């Protein structure tokens, strides 16, 4: 039974009442997935709420959580809400200074870390924290964070009186309102300092309700979640949608273990980013199984009925591949500031190359400059302690997304680029690099691509080689190259790539053609800060890291100017 409620707290408590003794989660314990009932989750969430209040948390206080996905992430989030506090989820992959910035900027009074791996990052940052800050760890962590001792969460919850914890839950049920600030999420951002997005209970609850009208749940739903819950995509579209729709939630061991976990739990629903879905496609191509019916479904555990893609553009060729394999994939669109979903495709109503239709209650219009403007109950309150930044994007009741798009004659929304990423050549031509990069990465020999050309008179590109397909093609063509390192500068390999690039861009205008390119062996990655946590390109970082290669491409003129 799907539950609709005005707040996430009300949604959670209705689900806990309705499905009390049913299995709510599959949690990995001692190497195998074990069932956990909704009642067990409720008990543990109530105990976290009581422990936080005993630590001095009052309504409106901020609580930061620095952890990868795990069972305790779920119960801590629910506990923070029941304590009437504001959850500040911090991405576990961030470095110490980045984590400290979000803790300090949000004014978090309690910081929960997963264990020593996260606590160690903060030792050198201890002088930045307010003296009243309290630290809690999920796993044992004997070493303090500078002068701050770390309490063990299990010790705190063991001291809780369950009757008192239940009273805290009742008080929250009677108190929480849709306009209450629920969470502050820091945008990873492709440029600039991260900003804290303020989302209310009503922002997220309304988005869940609208989303499930577009994606009606099945009767035996089992979600396998691997995207970080600290990001709004997984939090709304996996976690809170699970509360509303019921069924079972299983947490993947890690992004690398998704396929193995699929064989263990046999999910019916998987949300992900385009990189993941494209990787599945490329793997099956490399194994010569991309045209074998049923292979994709088999990889995903045999029961998947729905895949949701978001966070970045889904390549048309990937979308077509899933259709050919009989696995429905929906491309959606949204932002952290919109909680997040604005539009999505449906199984009965999808169109490749678009991000579907608008959710019920969401309005979108296109500005004269081509920017997507949105309004609806899911649009954020604003940026934490940044009134000027808030005023810049919330104007006359509309949120200015910064994305470029269009609505076609059939009512489908299409994303054409990012306003801040728009390339303006020295000839005054406006070019959306995202479109060109999607065309290039549709080629099996190209793993990643970055198109360059702002204030230049022609376009160039950094092309990341896809090693296995390249070496296979070189063997087939009898080109005497044995390694990727050797291929980078081999004239026949460059000629091969020039042909592939020209073929992929054959349908675009002359000034959108890539005139020169540099082949790269190392992929752009999170570790080098060249990708955001949602795997979008950080163009300024990449440009700085490859400044020498870029300048070399402009050292001599192209055959003709764009």
Structure write-up:
Among the domains are: 8-201, Rossmann fold (3-Layer(aba) Sandwich), CATH 3.40.50; 422-553, ANL, C-terminal domain (GMP Synthetase, Chain A, domain 3, 2-Layer Sandwich). Helix 9 links the parallel strand 10 (222-225) and strand 11 (248-251). The longest helix has 17 residues, at 38-54. 36% of the residues lie in helices and 22% in strands. It contains 20 helices and 28 strands. The strands form seven sheets. The protein has a seven-stranded mixed β-sheet, with helices on both faces. A five-stranded parallel β-sheet has the order 4-3-5-6-7, with helices on both faces. Strands 18, 19, 21, 22 and 23 form a five-stranded antiparallel β-sheet that branches. The protein has 562 residues and is of the alpha/beta class. The radius of gyration is 24 Å and the shape is globular. The model has no long low-confidence stretch (mean pLDDT 93). Helix 2 (38-54) crosses helix 7 and helix 8 (201-214) crosses helix 9 (232-245).
